[in-house]
Amino acid sequence: MLIAARTALSRLGEEQSARLQLRLSTFDFRSRWFGVGRSLICFAELTVVLITPSKALLTPVLTISDGARCGGVRAASAYCLVGGTSHAEYARWILVAALLVAAVGYRPRWTAIPQLWAIYSIAVSITVPDGGESVGMIMSLLMLPILLTDNRTWQWDPPAKPLRPSAHAIAYAAFWAVRLQLAYIYLDTAISKFGVADWANGTAEYYFLRDNMFGVAGPWDGPLLALSKYPLIVVAMTWGALVVELLIAVCILGSDRWRRVGLVLDILLHGSIILLMGLWSFALVMIGCSVVASMPLLRTPPAETPDEQLPTGQLPVEKGTNDSSVDHSVGRSSAVLR
């Protein structure tokens, strides 16, 4: 029995190793999924600097003095490098240019670092950043290794040749980092709210809908304010948001199919936030991150070229975008890899 158990564990380990090697050698991020997600993040941050005047972004709040924050590492931001508040408009248009080029998808490899720097400048220098700036900055950093392996002219172009083996592995590791980070954000957001009395007792949405700054506006204010007078509906809205956030966190770590379910939930959640509360840039950043995290795990690689072959012994990947396609090929790939 002990020998049989060891044999079974050994076989399981070989199959898992084969599956991992298959994914490491064939994962290809160069799809519309990644392009759309990245462009949404850049477009969201572009709206912040393009629509909002610099004076409003750098206005004094409480103990924060007038002008860009330039202490410590913040000195590397665009607002500080151009000479501070007096030249804030120059910084604003530099950021607009960097984000616009990144958003349209031109030269992903060369625009990856300017994208990260632009979003970093917004996140650390403006006086009242929201969660979207911080998430966009972190996700741009995690996406950087992926983008640096992309030598296409446009991120919308189909790949002409396969990535090098090392690029596949780097992109796959970065893809998992994006998924884990996004899942943590939603999980932490949902769990932390249970420690707030209004969320725990189910009345938070009642107060949010009536908030002077972020409350619901027309044409939804009448129906929603009327419905929120019923305790059962308020509790359903409040706890429903927490349940959706927990489901998104779980789905993001699942298979292709479950990640798409999580994407739908994410769009519904943040689409509701846009309709009811505004917060366009925050919602678009979160949806963009979810699109990137929902990329199909396996895709058929482009035709091989003599100088960029797949690893020796690697079998071609069958068409399909589900994790289940891996399961059908594990037996064959493990036999070859052994």
In angstroms, what is the radius of gyration?
23 Å
Number of separate strands = 0
> Biggest sheet, in brief?
none
- Low-confidence parts lasting 5 or more residues at pLDDT below 50? 305-338
What is the straight-line distance between the termini? 24 Å
What structural class do helix, strand and pairing data support? mainly alpha
H/E element sequence: HHHHHHHHHHHHHHH
Q: Percent of residues in beta strands?
A: under 5%
Q: Helix share of residues?
A: 55-70%
Let me know the average pLDDT.
82
The geometry reads as globular
Number of helices: 15
Question: How does this structure look, described?
Answer:
The structure is a single chain. The two termini are 24 Å apart. This protein is 66% helix and 0% strand. It contains 15 helices and no strands. The radius of gyration is 23 Å and the shape is globular. Helix 2 (32-51) packs antiparallel against helix 5, helix 2 packs antiparallel against helix 14 (280-293) and helix 8 (165-193) crosses helix 14. The chain is mainly alpha-helical and 338 residues long.
Using brief descriptors, characterize the structure shown.
single chain, 338 residues, mainly alpha, 0% strand, disordered C terminus
Question: Summarize this, please?
Answer:
Helices cover 66% and strands 0% of the residues. By secondary structure, it is mainly alpha-helical. The two termini are 24 Å apart.
